[in-house]
């Protein structure tokens, strides 16, 4: 009887090993993407001017402009997958997308779960608030409510450094900004590039804190271990740097928002080099 049990256990272990050995990885190589003629890219649908859906139902923005060039150079079409900030890692781990281009700030914790390519943008945190009670330093938020989106660097930064600030968290950026407009928080924090753009389009609100925390980089992310797509992206970003592609991206998608006197170099990273 004992021998039969041992034999059964051994057979089960062999079967499990075989299944594991033949399990398909939850990512696609460049060749597989080309063969399918479609690349699946996760972008924001509500974070203007970086990734959003316009009145005609078309994806637009700085990240989308880059996504379109990636598809062109791969010789495929893009299938956009809308993503919330907190789900950017998950959609890669589950194989729902090949690539995330959703204002994804590079952090050590995230780099343990996904592989980041070279950066194409830089930013810090900012805080936008009502002009009538402008937040000028983080301490002004002590005992007050700050609006953030889940899974963002703003959520992490204030949780770790300013525990006296009450955080009101939302899944979607549109929900977060509506909460600020409704007066449900003293301010809202996310990337300074984004709050500066939002304040320009919303009179009565200003960015009282334009740079908070460290200078961070934003980069494309692929599933952990997908060296095929990662290496292709790194070479693509280097090549695009030679033609100043991201400055052209800025002119096409951000200049009208930030104004004629805005400095593209404060945001743009060319060739992956800071």
UniProtKB/TrEMBL annotation:
InterPro entries: Bact_solute-bind_prot3, Solute-binding_3/MltF_N. Keywords: Signal, Transport. SUPFAM superfamilies: Periplasmic binding protein-like II. It comes from the Bacteria. One of its GO terms (biological process) is amino acid transport. Residues 1-23 form the signal peptide. Residues 38-257 form the Solute-binding protein family 3/N-terminal domain. PANTHER family: ABC TRANSPORTER GLUTAMINE-BINDING PROTEIN GLNH, AMINO ACID ABC TRANSPORTER PERMEASE. The keyword Hydrolase does not apply. This is Polar amino acid transport system substrate-binding protein. One of its GO terms (cellular component) is outer membrane-bounded periplasmic space. It holds the Pfam family SBP_bac_3. Belongs to the bacterial solute-binding protein 3 family.
């Amino acid at each position: 009887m004992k021998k039969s049990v041992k034999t059964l256990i051994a057979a089960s272990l062999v079967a499990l090993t075989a299944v594991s050995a033949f399990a398909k990885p939850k990512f696609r190589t460049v060749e597989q993407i080309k063969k399918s003629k479609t690349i699946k890219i996760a972008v924001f649908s509500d974070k203007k001017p970086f990734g959003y859906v316009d009145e005609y139902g078309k994806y637009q923005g700085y990240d989308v402009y880059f996504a379109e060039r990636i598809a062109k150079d791969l010789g495929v079409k893009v299938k956009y997958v809308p993503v919330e900030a907190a789900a950017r890692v998950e959609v890669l781990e589950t194989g729902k997308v090949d690539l995330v281009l959703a204002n994804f700030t590079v952090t050590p914790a995230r780099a343990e779960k996904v592989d980041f390519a070279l950066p194409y943008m830089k930013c810090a945190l900012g805080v936008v608030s009502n002009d009538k009670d402008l937040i000028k330093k983080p301490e002004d938020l002590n005992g007050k409510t700050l609006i953030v989106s889940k899974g963002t660097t703003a959520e992490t930064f204030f949780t770790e450094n300013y525990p006296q600030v009450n955080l009101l968290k939302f899944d979607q950026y549109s929900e977060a900004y509506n909460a600020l407009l409704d007066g449900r928080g003293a301010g809202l924090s996310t990337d300074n590039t984004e709050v500066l753009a939002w304040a320009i389009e919303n009179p009565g609100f200003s960015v009282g804190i334009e740079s908070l925390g460290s200078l961070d980089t934003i980069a494309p992310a692929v599933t952990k271990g997908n060296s095929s797509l990662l290496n292709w992206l790194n070479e693509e970003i280097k090549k695009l740097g030679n033609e100043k592609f991201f400055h052209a991206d800025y002119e096409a998608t951000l200049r009208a928002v930030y104004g004629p006197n805005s400095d593209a170099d404060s945001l743009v990273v060319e060739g992956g080099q800071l």
